[in-house]
Amino acid sequence: MSDAVPASVEIVDVGPRDGLQMEPEVLATATKIEFVTRLVDAGIRRLEVASFVNPKRVPQMADAEAVVAGLPRRDDVTYIGLILNQRGFERALACGIDEVGFVVVASDTFNRRNQGVSTDDSIAAWHAIAAAARAAGVRANVTISTAFGCPFEGEIAEDQVVRIATELAQSDPVEIAIADTVGVGVPAQVSSMIERLRGTLPDMPLRCHFHNTRNTGIANAHAALLAGASTLDASTGGIGGCPFAPAATGNIPTEDLLYMLDRSRVETGVSLQGIIDTGAWLQDQLGRPVPSMLTKAGPFPPIGDAA
Questions:
Q1: Under CATH, domain 10-297 is a member of which superfamily?
Q2: Is 242 marked active-site?
Q3: Span 181-220, pLDDT tens digits
């Protein structure tokens, strides 16, 4: 692990997908499009905007196609759609998504509950979808979820995650993401996992996705950064969770992560104030406070003060 933070890191905002999917009130399609537009205006250049899953299981994502159709198209912005199977891939492809993100769960029990098949079945499906995406000219990434622990199986062995990553890498994803889906990981685990994966797959870009269920999310993000992760997920406002994981709370807030990165002189290309303003707007749309600290405390020094 390096002692110094890198000069820059990419932030993927997952608020429009992972963030909104747990909200009890289904937002209007126009509101979701405005959410994405505000994030793009703040400097986010890669976003998860929808999931192409069964709308009966995740009602918030029932309008995925309409959301994608209404998004502002820019050459410098990549919109990601989450998929779990071939049907989801076909829907994503038909509406012109820029990138698909497939999910394989490290826990076989969770994979069966979430996707209706075994982990090995999902790995096989990934290989088929990756080939189809390549033929269609669509970027494809893959996430290993519950990489640090599962609410049904408990601890997940690091060897299991490395084995899955090695198998997934055979189909050349644009990156492999490691997700702490239920927020159980701590920095020492994150450092060990990322260093092990970098040693095993030295040319594979690694993205990390943390939930803040036990208040370790930002510390885990910092550990991932030091260990060599090139991309970090976050959700504006800190909203989110997994509808199939008991007690899973929100993602790490984009604005809280940006505060740490800005003060550490890590370049992201994203406006902290722009994300804070978007978090405040999001509170109004949801009708309740969002979890992020920066939405409450604001930046330091306050805007207008000398740096």
A1: Aldolase class I (3.20.20.70)
A2: yes
A3: 999 999 999 999 999 999 999 999 999 999 999 999 999 9
